[in-house]
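go over this chain:
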Amino acid sequence: MNHFSEQVTRRQCLALLAGASAAALAPKLCRAASDRNLLLLAISTDTLAGVNIVDARASYLALINQYNSVQGGKVSCEVVPGVFISSSEILRDVRQGTVECFGVTAVEYAKLIDLVDPETLVLQDYLADGIQYVLVVHKNSSFKKIADLRGAQVLTHRHRDLVMAPCWLETMLAGMNLPRSERFFGSISSRDSISQVVLPVFFRRADAAILSSRSWATAAELNPQLGHDLQISAVSPRVVPIAIGFRRNCNPIGRKLLLESMLNVTNTVAGRQMAALYQANGFVRRPISIMAGTLEIVRESERLSAQQTGPRNKRP
């Protein structure tokens, strides 16, 4: 079966730009002296986290048209046709120097690390220091440690913040000398809302839930009974799931203009509304070192995935 499988719903379009929402707004907020300073921007479809790409593209273009009418069409970058391109396409185009600003997942960022500009990493403010995932179980269940979850039914939140959850699970299980997730757990499936993830565990209809610690804190605050009856069984290291990067040695004027517009996007009413939609207060510039722990998890997960034989691949 396909673990972490995702079904598309229209409501997910509220998160369509994910970590690249600042980059989505920035093209129409920037002013360039000439077309020579234009940068080409693209967003990976992997950042959509299951959102219908047709709806996502329509929402994006409607937003850009609104900004274009306000800003008079003066831009410092262009967007690739269709806005979103596949992971293989964005990796290829960045390597070829065609795409110079990109919104990608951490897994894709790891593949581009030799090409990224270390001075121009942009994140939503709540991702500035990374986020953590939690694995939650019922206090009265028999699951006292991760090894007890063999054959368990696990639910995970379908959200772009959770794109690093599979990598974390694999590295955590490997560190405990347990089989890979698809062999260890009975099933792993995604749900659209936090309530659909935690309530089945609360009512003992599912065994465990995986969500961000931020979402868990909110859920427990809104429903204190959840915090009373459920408990955290595992916590991930801090990770940065999605980032906006620039290609090394791209046009410095275009980069400066685009970067400034990203960081100042909330200076407009529409920009503040957009940031609020993604539960952010704005966007921040961070050193590439903030990605170090995340990239280490990605590389270890890929190493484990590449193993075709060995004890962890044998069924228990």
Remarks:
- Confidence is low (pLDDT under 50) at residues 1-34, 67-71.
